[in-house]
Batch of 3 targets.
Target 1
Amino acid sequence: MKWIKKLFCGNTEATPSNIEAHKDEIKVPVSFLSAQNIVYAGEEVGLSRLAFKAKQLGNKYVTIDRNIYYQALNNIAKGRRLDYSIQRSAKLNLLGIRYEKEGNIEDAVKVYEENIAMRSNGRHAYDRLKIIYRRQKDRENEIRVLRVAIGVFGEDSEYNERLLKLLSKTKEPF
């Protein structure tokens, strides 16, 4: 955490002109230290203390160890992808629910299928497809959905029990 020491030790009147980045550091705008980026980066990266001090001093730029910066960027990208995935999954589930309430099962299946194609870690789409395909007596698709769910949630999930039960009634191999 030498980059924190650089900011907190020595010259507490640091300004953009007297904080120069060395070869193992990178100079970034303080705006990079937004609350959302700090949350995504994770506490182990330690950006929150740096952001607080830099904003307190009125700095427009901060220097950060390159490894810490790239770790933060990687964590931020992962966090944003996860947020997008969760939001997309929720929207698709709500749309599927609406279609089901309207009696439009065909469109509900389409949006639930889109949801499981993303390998969403929410159970709603898998559960609804499993039920819809069971009601339609479409074992092939029910088995496919169960296999995808097991891939997402693991073999210890209730999906494995249902799959074993279905496969024991058919001659299809595991």
Note: Residues 1-18 have pLDDT under 50 and may be disordered.
Target 2
Amino acid sequence: MAIRKVEIERFSVTSSKPFEAVVAALKASVGHPDMVEFANVTKTARTFAELQSAVQRGLGRTGLMLFTEFDLGAILRKETGLDRPKIVRLVIGNPLIMKEMAKHVPDAGSYAPVTILVDERPDGVHLTYDRMASLLAPYGNADALAVARDLDSKIENLLRESAA
């Protein structure tokens, strides 16, 4: 049995825009493949080139896609009967980026695709992301870290743009 201590760097941006506008901006920047069809196409791809093509078709302008989303606020709102809190967890990524990290550090598959949390608070809408490079740093693999840093840059730019 092994336990690895991981220190996480959390990137956060606060927006004065309405919650719905921030979420819409995020979603407009990433691809939205039909995930059932995407899974079938990637599973039945006979070559890596076919797989790459399927992934590329599913990506948005940021080179990322939305895998799924969870409306965590809906569960909380059911309990209170109020229209708040508003909290959404978006699972976003790119399987080709994940592959590049996982071939050097298999545990990267535990962290990719990544989570972006969007939640409304009294001071604004918070967009939060745990940096992939911080999650992979304990593994000490320079190649995986280079890919992780590039992914962090993509995600952080997406959050800044969506918040502006």
Note: The longest helix spans residues 142-163.
Target 3
Amino acid sequence: MIAEPTEPWMNNVHETLNRYTVRFFTGSFEQDLTKRFEQFGQNATWWVSPDWKVIYIATEWTDYKQGNGPDGYGVTLHKLWKSTDGGMTWRRLAWPEVNNIGQLSFLDADRGYAIGWGPRIWRTADGGEHWEEVKAPALAYEVDSERTRAAQMSARADVRPIKGTRFELTAASLEKNGVLFFAFFSPEPYRGQKAVSLVYALRWEDPADIFARADEPRGPEIVIPEATVVDVLWVRGGERGPRGNALYLLTEQGLPHNHDIPHDTDRARPAGVWRWTGERATHLKTFDDDIRPDALYVGKDGLLLIDASSSRNEHDIALVSRDGGESWTRQDEGPGAAGGHFENGGTTKWRYFGYSLLSREIH
């Protein structure tokens, strides 16, 4: 059968985008899935507790029928939802609709972080009822030196829009030891070094102004030259895993693409891996130019897995290491899937492709 528009709005891409929804299903392999949640939105992020009881979902809905706002972007609304009974019932939490949430990470059902545009970091200790903002480091903001942010907000529509209002962290990971590692590519030099990515560590007990205080703000733990950190992963040392605790960093090597330079977006930015054990980060590997990195995982017995894709044939690629990142094998997983996942500490890799959920064991 061929889908044919039956109403005028179906021929308007803005109308169809405005009707996109975010859905949440529960079920099992033996039973059909049941829809538990649906709200308007083109994007979303979520977190589920280990016992599958507490669920947070942040939805993002852009009104494609309206023009751009004062920051030069479309009008976007953000909402935060919570369930405490495995998705059977939901409650909308008090959350400013202008504040984007691109990532939710929790230590337990009550203590967690929300990360969004700006970049901005919030944390809650009471299950999302109240939030405290942790000020990001000054170098995380793309500053317009010609105009103050307040002045730009009141500017006329024909004046150059605010810069960097949707500047984002390039990576953030909340580890089981309670430390939130986050990274960004600095638009300004750091201690005389240009074109660097900075990696910071935020502990749960740290004050909210730890990175922005006037007197001795905490600096970055790691400085990576000419690379963008895509993902970070804390790996605890063990008898069968890497010796000693280590933070692994997945990167795109080279400077970010400059859209003002013709054809610069064609420049390859291959994936790279770094390891940090408390002092200077060590570069372990740069992969083939076609590799586009996505996420980094640790499996059973210290196995490391990079979820990636290939620009050469649009296939999904798994990069696997069994010696702490010193050497890697490349595994072609076939045409690009719509989604995938690997559970840290396990061996099973999941892919959603062609309306089917597929799995395989990583050995």
Note: The CA atoms of residues 25 and 35 lie 4 Å apart.
